[in-house]
Design a protein that fits this description.
Strand order of the largest sheet: 3-2-1-4-5-6-7-11
Bound molecules: glycinamide ribonucleotide
Number of strands: 11
Mean pLDDT: 96
Distance between the termini: 32 Å
C-alpha cells in the first residue's frame, strides 16, 4: 500500500535472471495501471539480462552480488541496506533466486511479494514444470503470494491455472505459464498498491475478505 496518497507508490524489484516479470510490472506502471514507480531493480547476478531491460526502460539498476559475501546473513544485510535507500512501499521478487534469511523476510513482511511457477502449495522449489508433467497433472499454473519465513509457502494472493497438454514438454509449459505470469503479477502488485490486499496472521484478505488457500484463481485456456 502507498505510504503517500499523492505520490506514486515506491517499488523495488529484485531479479536474478531475464527480468520479464519486472518489465511487465514496469509497463503497467508506465501505463498507470499501477499507481507506482519502480525506483530500482536490484540483481544478485551481475550478468542478469533483466539489468539491461531495466536500463532500457530508464530504471536505476544495482548489483548486490551474493558471491561478494561470506554468509547469507551478510548478503541479506547489504541487500536490505540497498533496498532501504529507496524507502519502498513494496518489495517485489521477480525471479529472484535466493533463499532469504528470516531477518530479511521479517523486515519487509506484509509488503514482500513473489511469483512462483506452480499452483502453490504444490511444487515448491525448482523444476516445477517438469514435476507437474511427471506427476501427470492435468493442470498447472503460477502463484503470486506474500513472502513469509516459510520458503515458497505463500500465503497465496492470485493464481493462473493452465491446462497441461499431452504434447507438453517443460519448455512449452513454461512459455505458456510465463505469458500468464505477465498478466497476473501486475494485477497482484496493483491490488497491493491500492491497499486492497492485507497479510494478517498468515492469511490474506482482499477487500477485507479472507481469501481461500489458493488465493483468487484465474483460469486460462491457453
Ligand atoms: C519466472 O518464471 C518466475 O515464476 C520464476 O522465475 C522466472 C523469472 O523469470 N520464479 C521462481 O522460480 C521463484 N521460485 P523473469 O526473470 O523473466 O521474470
Amino acid at each position: 500500500m502507498k505510504a503517500d496518497p499523492v505520490e506514486p507508490a515506491r517499488i523495488v524489484v529484485l531479479i536474478s535472471g531475464s527480468g520479464s516479470n519486472m518489465l511487465a510490472i514496469a509497463e503497467a506502471c508506465a501505463k498507470q495501471d499501477i499507481d507506482g514507480e519502480i525506483l530500482a531493480v536490484i540483481s544478485n547476478k551481475p550478468d542478469a539480462q533483466g539489468l539491461d531491460k531495466a536500463k532500457e526502460a530508464g530504471i536505476v539498476t544495482q548489483v548486490v552480488d551474493h558471491k561478494d559475501y561470506g554468509t547469507r546473513e551478510e548478503f541479506d544485510a547489504h541487500l536490505m541496506r540497498a533496498i532501504d535507500e529507496y524507502t519502498p512501499d513494496a518489495v517485489v521478487l521477480a525471479g529472484f533466486m535466493r533463499i532469504l534469511t528470516p531477518d530479511f523476510v521479517r523486515r519487509y513482511k506484509g509488503k514482500l511479494l513473489n511469483i512462483h511457477p506452480s499452483l502453490l502449495p504444490k511444487y515448491k522449489g525448482l523444476s516445477t514444470h517438469q514435476r507437474a508433467i511427471d506427476a501427470g497433472d492435468k493442470e498447472h499454473g503460477v502463484t503470486v503470494h506474500f513472502v513469509t519465513e516459510d520458503l515458497d509457502g505463500g500465503p497465496n494472493i492470485l493464481q493462473a491455472v493452465v491446462p497441461v497438454h499431452e504434447s507438453d514438454d517443460a519448455e512449452a509449459l513454461r512459455l505458456r505459464i510465463q505469458a500468464q505470469e505477465h498478466i497476473i503479477y501486475p494485477i497482484g502488485v496493483k491490488w497491493f498498491i491500492e491497499g486492497r490486499l492485507q497479510l494478517s496472521k498468515g492469511d490474506v484478505y482482499f477487500d477485507d475478505k479472507l481469501l481461500p488457500e489458493s488465493g483468487i484463481r484465474l483460469n486460462s485456456d491457453a
